[in-house]
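Support request from a user on the community tier.

User writes: "When I paste my structure tokens into the form, the page sometimes reloads and wipes my input. The last time it worked, I copied everything first. Here is what I submitted, just in case something in the input itself triggers the reload:"
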């Protein structure tokens, strides 16, 4: 037997797997955070990609809008905004001509306590901050994307600024491929109908985690950022502890694509085959606080489980399902075709999780080990349940057969595996 320890909430639990069945663990190749995040960001600002340095494009009379992530993103924007403010001041721009916009997309406004955590008291004292409202009456139309016909309406303060600066973090994203860069414009500071039209493109088969080429959601976001005439962008890549690994500044697309390379180096993992069973943990607290967050591990595990295979999801979920729209769509629609129709008709953020879960359940069985009541897990979310990890493993073998092969993914939310044949990896295979 092989003992495989998997994060579960703030502790770990052990799965026992017969050695002859076990293929191994698929884990990320994380990098440590830089010792001095401020120095790393200042370096990126001094060495912009595809763009002049920020101080050379500024004039003292400019009105500047800086877009930062809202409270749903784990990155502290303080580390990015303060060096930018220093650059603005050095160019003669007064704090009173700077507005920081929280990129709320369709999310609620940022609360004062959250703003303090994100930006720090000094920045809040110095510059004006607003939360973007996607339903605002004074949104500005900047054009329509050519390829997908999305009418782009943007926050007025952002659109009318002389200098528009984006900040964010590059990471994997369900349907945009990666977060960061252009995503600060759409959905970040875009109107509700603009966002809905863009997000309905997630039904395309190329709208997937880690995919940019041919991804319509990404293509549409890139076009929107061009229509917005963004002047400068600053992105960071963080590790799973939230520590900044590297910063990238300059032209939106170039800075973003460099960030993508770093994310891939850390979180893509290549394996040589699919398994019959994948045992996945999102990575423990906070990644498994609720099913809404924990499902990301399942989505990544789908890359390495056979059609008809079994996924064992080990996620404590002390907060239950974690998202009312996710729950409501599972109750109200409950079937994949119905959810697809609703996404086209009236997409609401949260509904995408119902879509992904129902799509996964078409060809796979999912066994949940959690603290969630069985009623919710099985009746609402259509999952099999087990109270103990090894009960779930035994049930998986009952379904997949005693010769089933098994992968483990201890940090599923942070690992994107891909299957490549041994020949593709440059390993010769005897005929």
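"...and here is what came back when it finally went through:"
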């Amino acid at each position: 037997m092989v003992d495989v320890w998997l994060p579960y909430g703030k502790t770990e639990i052990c799965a026992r797997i017969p050695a002859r069945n076990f293929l191994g663990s698929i884990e990320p190749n994380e990098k440590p955070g830089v010792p001095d995040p401020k120095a790393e960001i200042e370096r990126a600002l001094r060495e912009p990609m595809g763009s002049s340095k920020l101080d050379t494009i500024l004039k003292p009379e400019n009105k500047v809008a800086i877009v930062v992530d809202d409270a749903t993103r784990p990155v502290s924007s303080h580390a990015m905004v303060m060096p930018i403010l220093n650059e603005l001041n050095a160019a003669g721009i007064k704090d009173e001509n700077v507005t920081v916009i929280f990129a709320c997309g369709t999310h609620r406004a940022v609360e004062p306590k959250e703003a303090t955590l994100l930006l720090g008291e000094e920045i809040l004292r110095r510059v004006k901050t607003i939360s973007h409202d996607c339903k605002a009456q004074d949104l500005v139309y900047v054009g329509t994307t050519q390829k997908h016909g999305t009418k782009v309406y943007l926050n007025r303060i952002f659109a009318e600024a002389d200098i528009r600066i984006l900040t964010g973090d590059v990471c994997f994203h369900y349907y945009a491929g990666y977060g960061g860069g252009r995503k600060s414009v759409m959905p970040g500071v875009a109107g509700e109908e603009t966002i809905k039209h863009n997000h309905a493109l997630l039904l395309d088969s190329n709208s997937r985690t880690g995919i940019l080429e041919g991804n319509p959601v990404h293509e549409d976001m890139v076009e929107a950022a061009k229509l917005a005439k963004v002047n400068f962008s600053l992105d960071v890549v963080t590790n799973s502890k939230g520590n900044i690994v590297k910063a990238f500044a300059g032209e939106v697309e170039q800075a973003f694509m460099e960030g993508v390379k770093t994310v891939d180096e850390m979180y893509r993992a290549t394996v040589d085959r699919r398994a019959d069973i994948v045992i996945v943990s999102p990575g423990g607290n906070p990644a498994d606080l609720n099913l809404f967050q924990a499902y990301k591990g399942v989505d990544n595990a789908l890359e390495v489980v056979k059609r008809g295979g079994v996924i064992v999801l080990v996620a404590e979920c002390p907060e239950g399902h974690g998202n009312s729209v996710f729950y409501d769509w599972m109750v109200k629609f409950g079937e994949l075709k119905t959810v697809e129709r609703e996404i086209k008709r009236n997409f609401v953020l949260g509904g995408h999780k119902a879509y992904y879960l129902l799509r996964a359940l078409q060809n796979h069985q999912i066994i949940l080990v959690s603290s969630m009541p069985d009623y919710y897990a099985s009746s609402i979310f259509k999952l099999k349940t087990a109270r103990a990890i090894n009960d779930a493993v035994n049930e998986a073998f009952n379904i997949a057969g005693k010769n089933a092969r098994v992968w483990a993914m201890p940090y599923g939310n942070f690992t994107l595996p891909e299957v490549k044949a041994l020949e593709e990896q440059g390993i010769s295979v005897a005929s």
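Agent notes: The reload is a front-end session timeout and is unrelated to the input. Residues 427-431 have pLDDT under 50 and may be disordered. The chain has two domains: 2-27+269-419, 37-238. Escalated to web team.
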